[in-house]
Amino acid sequence: MGDILLFAEQRFGSINETTPELINAAKKYAEIKPGKIIIAILGDSVGEFAKRLSKLPVDEVIKVENPLLKEYTPDGYAKVAFELIKARNPEIILLAHTYQGMDLSPKIATKLNIALASNCSAFELKDGKILWTRPVYNTKLQQKIVLKSTPLMATIERGAFAAATPTDKEANISEHKTELQPNDIRTKVKEVVSVMKGTTDISKEKILVAVGRGIGKPENLPVMKELAKVLGGDIAASRPVVDAGWTERERQVGQSGKTVTPDLYLACGISGAMQHVSGMKKSKCIVAINKDPDAPIFGLAHYGIVGDLMEVVPALIEEAKKIR
Amino acid sequence: MFPLSLNNTIFIIIFLTAVTVFTRRFIQLIGFARLGKPSKIADHIPWRLKTVGSEVFAHSKMFRDFKPGLLHFFIFYGFCIISIGTLEHIVHGIFGGSFRFLGETTYNILYFFIDLFCVLVFFSVIWAAYRRLIVKPKRLVINKHATYDALFILFLIGLLMAAQLIFEGAWINLDPESAPTLMPFGKLTGALLTSLGMQDSLETVKETAWWVHILTVLFFLCYLPYSKHLHIVTAIPNIFFKRIKNRGALYPINLEDEKVTSYGAGSVEELTWKDNFDAYVCTECGRCNEFCPTANTDKPLKPRTLIMDLRHHLVTYGEEKRKGVEHQTLLTGGAISRDVIWDCTTCGACVEACPVDIEHVDKIIDMRRNLVLMKGEMEPEVQKSMNNWESYSNPWGLPPTDRGKWMENLGVTTMAEKKDVDYLYFVGCAASFDERNQKIAKAIVKILQTAKVSFSVLGKEEKCNGETARRLGNEYLGQMLIKSNIEIFKKYNVKKIITSCPHCFNTFKNEYPDFGGNYEVIHHSLLINDLIKEKKLTLKQGANLNVTYHDACYLGRYNQIFEEPREILKSIPGLNVIEMPRNKKQGFCCGAGGGRMWAEETRGTRINVNRVEEAAATGASVVASSCPFCMIMMEDGIKNTNKEASLKPKDIAELVAESLS
Amino acid sequence: MKIVVCVKEVPDMESRFKLDSKNHKILEEDLVHKMNIFDEFAVEAALQIKEGLNDGSEVIIILMGPERASQTIKKCFAMGGDWGIHLNDPSFDGSDTFVTARVLKNVMRDIKPELILTGVQAEDNLQSQVGQSLAELLGYVHSTNITKLILNSDKKSLTINRELENGKEEVLELPLPAILTIQSGINNPRYPSLPGIMKAKTKKLEKWGPTNIGMKSDEVGLVGNKRDIVDLFIPESAKVAEMIKGDPKEAAKKLISILHDKEKVI
Questions:
Q1: ipTM over 0.95
Q2: Which of A73, A185, C57, C118 has the greatest CB tally within 10 Å of its CB?
Q3: Pair B476, B560 in one domain
Q4: CATH of the domain at B410
Q5: What is the mean pLDDT of residues A60-65?
C-alpha cells in the first residue's frame, strides 16, 4: 500500500489543466494498486491552489511555499521534489507530460537513479507488474513497457485522462518547509513573451480547418473561418487557394508551404494531392470533407464525410457551438 | 585618283590609329574572357564548318523570324560584298592602287553587286530603323542606351551606304570611261547629283564621299569593341566553336579530381572562357526572350538581360583586375541575382533561338552549382526535395517501398522476378507516386501488354535518375543517383529502356554515357508510334475531339522529337489535331523543368497558366502532352483558370489506351 | 569552447512499419534511416555558436547506434562538425534512456564540454529524457524545448528562449556548463556544401565500446536497461478511415461528438 505522489503544476495564476487529469490518472492507479494519493504543489504563495486541489479526489495536499519557487526552475523544483520523495517514500511518482513535466521529471528520476516512463497514455496491471502504454515512432505505433526500478515514475500524456471533478470531501493540507537556498538555483527567469505577434503562424495551431479548391469560390471562405473560430483553431489552405489569392501564403500547407502537425486537421474540399498531403499527414486526427468519394484524401484521413461543404460546414458550426 | 601622297600619309596614320584602337581594346576583351576556365572547342571540324554554312551563310536561325531575317540577310551579304570595295579604298588609301587587276569583267561584276547591295542595305537599314522606332516589336524594346546604340549603328551603316553611292555617282560622272559599267544605282545617284547642279564640284564630292565613307568605316572599327556591333567579328567564331555536346547533356564535373576545390561558377574566372566570350557576341536582338517562359511571365530572368549583364560584369571585372583594384561585385548572386539564377526552367528556348549560338543554360547551371555545392544555398522547398532524393531516392519523400504500388494486380513483372525481357520500363518518380501520373503508367502498361511487348519494371528498386538534382545545381547528388542507377541496370543487364518521362529519356540517352551507362533509350511516344505503324495496336473510332499537342521541352527541343507524338494523335480516329501558335522548336515551356517543379513560383505570373490559356485559345477540348511534369502543370493551370469543364489534359498514352479496341 | 551534440539515427517516420511482434521490434527490412530531425536543429545551433565564436571552438558529434549510423555522423561532419565518437558496439544495442544517459555521462568525463546540445526527443522513442538526465548526472544546468539560443558576450552564460504552452516562451539565463534540448524550427539546418562533404571523409571518427568508457557490458544494452518493452503494436485509430454516414446534419453531429469525446481534439 504505497503512496501515490503527484506533482501539480501552476503558472500564470492558475492550476494547469493537466493537473486534474493527473489526479484522475492517480485515481485509476489507486483502483488497481490501492494507495494514498498525495499531491504536492510548489510556488511562492499557493494557499488558494492547495485549497482547490484539496477538493479534488486526493487524500492529502502538500503545499511547498518559498519565494525561490515563484518561478519554475528545474534546480528548485527538483530539489524540493527530491526532499518530498525522500520524506514520503512513495511507491509511485506521477507528473503530467507538459513542457514543465518534460523538463523536470527526468531530473528527478535521475536524482533517484530510477527509470521514467514518459508521456504515457494508459497503464494496466498484468502479472503483478504495471504496464505503461505510450506512443512511439511519431505516434504511429504504441509500446507497453515495464519499469524495473522503484519507486515507479511516469509522466501522463496530456488529455489521456479526463479531468477529475471535485468531490464533497476535502483533503488535508500539509506544509513542507524546503531547505532550498538561492545558490541552489542556477536558472534565471527573465521574462515571458508571446510568440504570436500578429503574424500568422499556423504551425502553432492545434486545430486547423484547411480549405482547398473544393470550397468553390472566395465568397465561401467566411463560413470556413467561422468553423475554425468555433473549434478554437485557424484557417490553413492548400496551394490552389493561396495561389488564387483567397488567403495569405502563410496559411499554405504542403510540400512547398508549411508542414503542420495539429491535433485536428479538417481537410475541406482538399483532394489530397501528394504535394499537400506531405505537409499535414502527421496531424494527429485528420478529417476529410469532400464531395468526391474517390478523393485520395480519404485514404489518409481518420474520418471522412462525403458531402457538400456548404451544407456540412454550417451544420458542424452549429454542433460545435453546442459543446462549447 | 588622288595623287597627293600627303593624303596617303595622313591616311596611313589614321588607318593605323583606328586599327590600333580596335585591336588594343579587342585584345583586352579577349583577355577578360580568358580569365575563365579552359574549354575544349576545336574538335569535329567538318560538323563545325557545316554549322557555319547553315547558320551563317544560309541564315537558318535568322530566317525563323522572316522579315528581320531577310533584312539582316541583305545587310550581312551587303557587308561582305561592300567590304571588298572598302578594302579597295583602304588599299588605295595606303598605296594608291585599285582592284582592277582582277580583270575588267570581274571588276564590273564586283561593282554591280556592291552597287546593288548598297541600295539593299540602305533600305534594309531604313526598314530596321522603322521597326525599332515605329513598329517596336516587344523583343526590341530594351532601354534607352541600347536603343540609341542600335539606331546609331543603323545610322552609321546608312551613312556608309549613302557615301558609297554618292562616291559611285560622282565617279561615274567624272570618269565614265574607266568607272565600272554595271552600277545602275550609282548611275542614278550620278544623275541625281547632276540634277542638283553639282557637276562642277564633282571632284570635291567624290573626295568628300570617299573620306566620309572611309572615316566612317574606321570610326566604326574603333566603336566596335564598345558596342554590340562587335558581333560582326565574334559571331562567326562563336558559331564555329558552339557546344558540340548534345544540348540535353550537362557538362559533368569531375568529382574524383582531388585538385578541384571549387565547383560551379561564382565568378567569371570560374565560367569557361567560351561562356564569357558568349557575352561579346550578343546583338541584343531579344529572340531569346521571345519564347522564354520567365521573360513572358514578368520574372526577373530574361535571357538577353542575363547575357548583357554578364557582358557588363565581365568587362567591369576585367578592368578591375587589370588595374589591380578590389572587385566590387561578384557574379553569382551579385551581378546576376539569385532570383534570376533560380527561375530558369532550362527549357532551352533561348539557346534554340539565338542566332549566334549563345549558351544561356550552361551558365545558369554553373551558377546554380556554385550556390548549391559551395554554399549549400537553395530555396527552402528545394532543400526539402534534395533531402528527399538523398534519403528516399524520390523528390516527394515517399517510402521507396511504395514505388511499385500502382501496378498491383496489373500482371507487371519486376526485374527481380523476371529479368529476361526485352525492355526495362523505367516508370519514373512521377508516375510511381503521383496519382494523376499513375494513370498514365497504367495506360502504358495496357498498351505494352496489348502489343505483347516484353518488359519488366524495377518496382521498389527503382530510384530517381538524378536528372533534376543536376539541373538544380546539385551535381554531387545527381551523380550519386546516376551511379546507383547504373549499378542497378548492370545488375539486371539492362540494354533497352522505355520511359514515359522526357527528363528520364533525356538523361538516360544523353547524360548516362558520360558515366559509363550506355543504353538504347526509347520514349513511349516513339515506341507507341512504331507499334501503331506495325499494326500491333488497333485503334477504334472514338469521339470527335479537337486536340492540341503541348511539346515537352526535353522531348522536343532537346531531342528533336516533334512528329511522332503528332503522328500518334493523327492515327487515333476521331481526333483532330490543332497546333498552338508556339509549337515544336518554339514550344512554350510548362514551367516545371530545371527543378522548378519543386519550387515555389513567387515572382511574376504563372507560366503554366500562360500555356493553358494558349491551349484553350485553340478551341481544343483536350491538351495532349507526353511528360508527367507537363501533365501536373497543365492540370494545375486548368484548375487555376477554372477550365476543368472545357479543357482536359491527357497524356498521349492515355489517348491511345482509351482508343484500344 | 567544446560543444557536444548528441545525435541519434532513427528510421524514417514516413515508413509503413512492419512489426516483429514476437520481439517487440520493427522490422528493419527496406527501412530508410536518417538523422533524428530534432538533432539536425541541434547540430545547426552548435555550428552557429562555433562560427560566432570563431576561435577554434569545436563541435563534437556523439552518436550511439549501429554501423549504418556512421552515415549520420558523416553528415554532421559535412555540415561542419569537427570530430566525433561513434558508440558502436553490439552490447549497446537496445539501450534505454537510463543507460544512454549514463553512457554519455562517461563519455563527457573525458571531453569536458562547456555546452551539450541534444534534440528535444528522438522521433522513434519519443521519451525526451536523455538531455535532462545527463545534466543531472554531470551536474550541469539544463533547459528543454529551446527555440532561441544566444551565447552571452561573457562567453560563460547563455540567454535562451524556452517554449511553453499556448504560444508563449520564457526567456532564461543559464551559466555554462549547460545542456539544452533543442526544439525544431529554431534555425534552418544547413545543406552541406560539397567541400564540406569532401572534408567529412577525413575528419576524426572514433569507435568506442563500453570499455572505452569504463563500463561493463552488463551495465548497458538490453541487459543494463531499467525498463523492458513488452509489446509494440499499431494503435486502433491509425488503421482505417472511418466514413461518417448520414445527411449533413447527422454527419456533423456524429463528427463533432467523435472529435470531442473520442479523439479529444476539440
A1: no
A2: C118
A3: no
A4: 3.40.50
A5: 97
Q: Could you tell me if B395 and B454 lie in one domain? A: yes
Instruction: Please give the interface size between A and B, counted as residue pairs whose CB atoms are below 8 Å apart.
Output: 28
Q: Which residues of A touch B598 (CB under 8 A)?
A: 255-256
- Looking at the structure, tell me whether residues C212 and C261 fall in a common domain: no
Domain total for chain C? Answer: 2
Q: Three-state DSSP class for B516?
A: coil
Contact B268, B313 (CB under 8 A): yes
Residue in B313, B310, B311, B306 with CA at minimum distance from that of residue B289: B306
Q: Is C229 close to A143, i.e. CB distance below 8 A?
A: yes
Model pLDDT, residue B1: 47
Beta bridge partners of residue C61, listed in sequence order: C5, C84
Q: How far apart are the first and last CA of chain C?
A: 47
**CATH numbers and ranges of domains, chain A:** 4-184 (3.40.50.620), 202-323 (3.40.50.1220)
Task: Give which of B257, B270, B390 to mutate to test C binding, by max C Cβ within 10 Å.
Answer: B390
Residue that wins the pLDDT comparison between B74 and A160: B74
**Claim to verify: residue B211 and residue B281 sit in the same structural domain:** no
C contact test, residue of A11, A261, A287, A311 with most C CBs within 10 A: A287
From the CA of B640, how many Å to the nearest CA of chain A? Answer: 7
Is residue B247 situated within a structural domain? no
Chain B interface includes C196 (CB < 8 A): yes
Angle of helix B435-450 relative to helix B628-640, nearest 10 degrees?
A: 130
Judging contacts by C-beta atoms under 8 Å, the chain B residues touching residue C185 are: none
Q: Tell me: do B395 and B525 sit in the same domain.
A: yes
Residue B165 lies in domain: 40-240
Instruction: Tell me: pLDDT of A196 over 60.
Output: no
In a domain, C230, yes or no: no
Q: For B320-354, b where at least 16 C-beta lie within 10 A, e where not — what string?
A: eeeeeeeeeeebbbebbebebbbbbbbbbbbbbbb
- The closest of B203, B125, B211 to B169, measured between CA atoms, is B203
Would you state the pLDDT for residue C237?
A: 46
Average pLDDT over residues B208-231: 93
User: Which tens digits make up the pLDDT trace of B319-337?
Assistant: 999 999 998 899 999 999 9
Give the mean pLDDT of B385-394.
92
At B45-68, the pLDDT tens digits run 999 999 999 999 999 999 999 999
Give the dihedral sign, CA B651/B653/B656/B661. negative
